[in-house]
Design brief:
heterodimer, A: about 350 residues, mainly alpha, about 60% helix, B: about 575 residues, alpha/beta, Fumarate Reductase Iron-sulfur Protein, Chain B, domain 2, six-stranded mixed beta sheet, 15 helices, about 35% helix, globular
Amino acid sequence: MKFGTQSRPLSEGVNSVQRVMLTVWLALVPGTVAATALLGWGVLINVVLAVMAGLAAEALMLWLRARPVRPAITDGSVVVLAWIFALCLPNLGPWWLPVFGAAFAVIVAKQLYGGLGFNLFNPAMVGYVVLLISFPEPMTRWGPAIDVGGGALNFAQSLAWSFSGALPTGIGYDGLSVATPLDHMREQIMAGAPIHAVTQSVLGGAGLARSWNLWLGAGFLLGGALMLWRGVIRWHIPVAVLAGVAGMSGFLWLIAPATHASPLFHLVSGATIFGAFFVATDPVTASTTPRGRLIFGFGIGVLTVLIRSFGNYPDGVAFAVLLMNLCVPLIDYYTQPRVFGHKTAGKLR
Amino acid sequence: MSEIGPKVTKARYDFHGGIHPPENKQLTRDRPIRDLPLMARYVLPLHMHIGASARPVVKVGERVGKGQVLAQATDFISATIHAPTSGTVVAIDDHLIPHPGGLRAPSILLESDGDDLWADMLEPWPDYQTHSPTALRSRLRESGVVGLGGAVFPTAAKLATGPAQVTTLVLNGAECEPYITCDDRLMRESPADIVAGARIALHMLGATQCLIGIEDNKPESLTAMRTAVAEDPRFAVVSVPTRYPAGGEKQLIRMLTGIEVPRGRRATEYGLLCLNVATVASVYQAVVHGLPVIDRIVTLTGGGVVQPDNFKVRIGTLMNDVLTAAGGYRAGVDRLIMGGPMMGFSLPDDTVPVVKATNCMLALRPEDRPEEPAPQPCIRCSLCAEACPADLLPQQLYWYARSRQFDRAVAYHLFDCIECGVCTAVCPSHIPLVDYYRFAKTEVWAQEREKSKATVARDRFEFRKERLERQKAEREAALNKKRQALEAKAAKAVQTPKPPGDTPAEPQTSTETAAGEAAYGEYRPGHAPIDTRLDSAVEAARARSKARRAALEAQRTEAPIPESDDESEKI
């Protein structure tokens, strides 16, 4: 009797890229729900627009590159990319921010490098940074959180604002937009003024209900826990990022407590938690060795605080991630694990 | 070590990574070993062990008895092959062998006479202690004993440890591959044979202790082996966690002793030697009963067979005969694997013989195995690195193998890969990683062969150049000598005395050179020298070399192998 042949093991698990990506989708839900509830419909509109643009850009590029479209579209990776990217955007931004950014991320940062698995830089962060540099003004259109009069726009109004810039009568843009806590911090640092007032409000000094940063952080922490539990990410990178942020900001805070925010402020504000669990852990662009992941994550944490404190941009997670992406080949090279039976670990002889 | 019961301990050490695939051993674990009926024909490949092929010592048409030597081991690493039953040798010819590529290889075809009569057998040695390790090794060699765990390395060669002093014998009863239960059944049914064989091995090695490693999913085997070794203080039964590949030699040694045997080193350098439980049972049979290896236990299993079972199968039984005797296939079967689902290979045809390496025949239908989804890009998730029992970075190896940067792959320890298939099994992108590593390994081997060929060729070329120069110098020296003699003669004749040149080997001045050329004629290839005074010996030598070159040219066009350019140097 004749048989078919194959060389793959015939006994294996049911893991797949799709399953990994779907887990990330699920993990993004609590944070997205929290962000939408706290910062208004603009968040959800951003996500939907970015995902649609990302899928369209991916399909177009695959078609141009004469690669099979279906497997790449259905593996779920584009949605993860666009979703993570969209969550970085200001909640009062115009519609073309998510569309342009997601398309740029997919076309340039992902597909031009060869598609999934071949990109050197985190595409979501590339999209975000390109927008930040190219369109600084729209990228600061942050509306206040729900506790301070945010959520003033209902879904239809948000949609109208996003697409046409039209606001309902009686609401002015100036009344909507507000500086983020990190912007506030920067202003205070620039002015050389004490920053306790800013940091206190974020850390629940004004009551837990008004500390939207904490709720948002909790949402992403929940998602991160889910990914850890499902084995989609490992603890090394998130822990190292948070340790890097805490360590670097703690160091600055100890030296000059009046002009530097406390480590706790740095941990819960901006994109620290989101970045630690969802951005830095992108497996394609992160280090792959256990020790390398610790170095990679710690570097992101340290750079984030340095950019926040001394750089030109209010938040530094995106730049920190991209800078550390650059170092990944080097880190991986020097942090190889000890091979079975070999005496020494690490770099090649 | 925490005590489980008398003489059963838990392994103190562990290895990195590994996976726990569905065991599927329940299909056959409680099926006792049964004999198969005598078959009409048997096929014995001459090469079913590691090392050199055996050399047939019977002729076509010859009648042989059961256990008679059919083919003799030809090298230190080689194994003797015996007749599985009495009958007639009907052919010594190429036959399909169990190979993923469906290869044919020289085999002895034996037609059974149905009597199953033993030939004259070797003398039983129940008093094996009175025999020297060397004598016992030749007994194992004559009996065709090889590693039955799947590696089929000749046991006599393995036990020839040279100057290394082995203190610990490790018995491998882990049987970590899913589905397979042949060692489990053997340990449960014949633990005394295993222990007796291990005692012989201890005697041969001069070793002082024996550790028996068994995965903890085989409680009956653990109990049976513990009972069998209860009287002997040298033995200890160690339960190891059920995690593939716990039965890998290096992984098992690590778990039992904490010692990591690196690639390129032998376990014996660390005072260790590892044998499979079935192997030592055949050592016992060969030494104490004088019985050669003519059968082995085979697990026939999988959703593709009507009745999964454990059989004692004679070596050379065709797999389709085994299947027929066992009740046949189920409808829809489309894969037949020799070995387990992790490291076994699929066979394109079932008219191949059971060989000494056949521990399992696994027949699967599509519903019994995972789908084969198309490979997707590597997302560097490093699940493979977490699961790798050799602590490698499979995703990096894949990257370098794929981009043909083989030197980088080697630097990332490509050759430490044991090809256990764990990385392929856990890969969410379904990349056939091990295939890439095998490809990279063969490419590196090919490169190295090319390199050594080139080195040999270069050495040969340089030697040839040197020799030609030397010959040229000698020739010129001889010519000069002759010329001087002639000049001296001529000088004498015209009565103008002139001293000979400064040194015979350096006729450098232009007048002398001109004189020389005038005297001996100009050598032009293809033309006979004008001057007949040219030395006839030189002439003859040139003719010879020309003829040789022509012959070589003809040879070269037949077989254009690079180094044959210098074939003349062998003459």
